[in-house]
Amino acid sequence: MSGRIFVWFLATLLLTTVYAEAQQPTKVYRIGYLSAASAEADKNRFAYFQRGMQELGYIEGKNVVIEQRYAAGQFERIPELSAELIRLKVDVLVVYGETAILAAKNATSTIPIVMTVHPDPVGDGIVASLARPGGNVTGLSDLHTVLATKRLEILKEVVPSASRIAVFFHAANPTLLRQLKDIQDIAPAFRATVLAVPVKGPDDFDRAFVMMRKERAGALMVLGSPLIGIHRQKILDLAAKSRLPAIYTLRDNPEAGGLMSYGANFQELWRRAATYVDKILKGAKPADLPVEQPTKFEFVINLKAAKRIGLTIPPNVLARADRVIK
Fold first, then answer.
1. pTM score
2. Of 67, 129, 184, 291, which shows the fewest CB atoms inside 10 Å?
3. DSSP character at residue 194
């Protein structure tokens, strides 16, 4: 009898333990998402971040809450939005836009920060090195600076006669100033000169394209940034109206009617950002997580856009495209 009582006692103890553990509340992580762009411009990319989180077992409303804040091009609001997320005591900050990343880094040295993308985090002093970031920031880089040569090469193949290349960029972004210098340095090798076209905001766009036509630019490079993403359609329309062959950094541009793009797949970078969040929530330190760089780049051509400006894409260039929009 005593043996049966002992077995019953053990079974009861086991069931009680299992029941108690089952009643433990699920840990709900709070993630802050801070973007220099708008919710509309980020919509597709953010969906990929959500998908990446779901693939790793994080379900919004169940074990994770994502607090979203968008500056929508009002860059002066970024420090305020960053401080707001910090006051919410988020477990991790996920940040897009060089200005936003720097603001977040300046605002906290303890909350882990994951960059969805940054063209030159070492050059901007965001991380000590790609291999060992140090501090509380890590994430992904899209190598915009390195890709400047490739984009110029493509432009010259498509428009060999273009001796003056306009470079359209957000003047307040220091990373883009370094990209401009790199392009200016390599332009002579392609028998081209660079026409720098800085803009402070959308009110400058029309004037900028008037200047390009006046200065007889033969082709256009648009350097990617949150400002460009927010006002993508206006820039695409102005480039078409000016009949300027243009190359952009993201495939979103030719998909929306632009001519060409060459660069990293941003949707994939946002999905990969979720893996950094997961590692940090499981105890990894940002300082020890190397900044990831893309290994595959997309070349997209829109033939409708080419036809609209009376341009024929050489067959050898078309053959290299990862996607041709007809």
1. 0.87
2. 129
3. E
Amino acid sitting at position 158: V
CATH annotation of 29-142+266-288:
3.40.50.2300
Domain ranges in the chain are 29-142+266-288, 144-264+297-325
| Amino acid symbol at 246 | A
For 295-313, what is each residue's pLDDT tens digit? 889 999 999 999 999 999 9
Fold category of 144-264+297-325 in CATH: Rossmann fold (3.40.50)
* CB distance 122 to 130 below 8 Å: yes
Structure tokens at 36: 């220099």
What are the CA-CA distances from residue 31 to residues 50, 68, 260, 276 (Å)? 11, 9, 35, 12
Question: Can you tell me the distance from the alpha carbon of 39 to that of 278, in angstroms, rounded to the nearest whole number?
Answer: 23
